[in-house]
Amino acid sequence: MGNIFLNPGFETGKLSPGWFGGMTVNNQHNHSGNCAAFGSNQWMQQNFPTPIPAANITELSFWFDFAAGDSGSTGYINILYSDSTFTQVAITPATVYTKLNVTASITSGKLVSGVYVFVNVNNPCWFDDFVCTVPGASAPVGCAGAGAAMNVRAMMFFWLISAITESRRNLSDFELSEQIGRKLAYSA
After folding, report:
1. Cis peptide upstream of residue 17 (ω within 30 degrees of 0)
2. pLDDT tens digit sequence for 105-116
3. Distance between CA atoms of 105 and 18, rounded to whole angstroms?
4. Which helix (H) or strand (E) holds 184?
5. SS3 (DSSP) at 185
6. Do the beta carbons of residue 79 and residue 105 sit within 8 Å?
7. pTM of the prediction?
8. Contacts for 93-98 with beta carbons within 8 Å, 24 or more apart?
9. Rounded Cα gap, residues 98 and 108, in angstroms
10. Quick one: pLDDT band at residue 151, thresholds 50, 70, 90?
11. Burial of 122 (0-12, 13-18, 19+ CB in 10 A)
């Protein structure tokens, strides 16, 4: 089984490859490995190279930690689908690293195209160790663990995503996701 997230633990020391958005990465408060993404009133997103049938995903989860004092703040993860719809799941504040498994929230019959994470907090919230397990998938570059397969095609797709994102800042997140999804589908 492979984790299809690119850079799931932010071990590159930055969001890329794979992620884009306003969150930052540092090595001061991580769940595992050396780094974690964090932000206050920020977002980040990752689009998968190819949409995945919901039935093929055996786990979609991540670890998070809200800073002390932000117990009333909010966060969300949107599970993005190839038809431009999404399922939104609230992230209930926790002041220690907590695992949130959103697998049961995936809408059956849909094609999952990525995730979008948003936090509305005054103090930092940290995210680490994203997992999207698909049986038979090979782990792309940036995944923790020795022997993670190098997926050059995925790297090219994520470079394309970064380029499109930079050139289309005036688009909404969902319009951008839709354009990227079309480009990825065309090149598959």
Report:
1. yes
2. 999 999 999 999
3. 23
4. helix 173-187
5. helix
6. yes
7. 0.73
8. 93/66, 94/64, 94/65, 94/66, 95/65, 95/66, 95/67, 95/68, 95/71, 96/65, 97/31, 97/63, 97/64, 97/65, 97/126, 97/128, 98/63, 98/64, 98/65
9. 26
10. very low
11. exposed
2-187 topology per CATH: Jelly Rolls (2.60.120)
Tokens 């932010």 belong to residue: 10
Q: Are 50 and 138 in contact (CB under 8 A)?
A: no
pLDDT at position 110: 97
For tokens 């049961």, what's the residue? 104
User: And the tokens for 84?
Assistant: 């431009």
Residue 175 is which amino acid?
A: E
Q: pLDDT tens digits, residue range 35-49?
A: 999 988 899 999 999
CA distance 4 to 134: 7
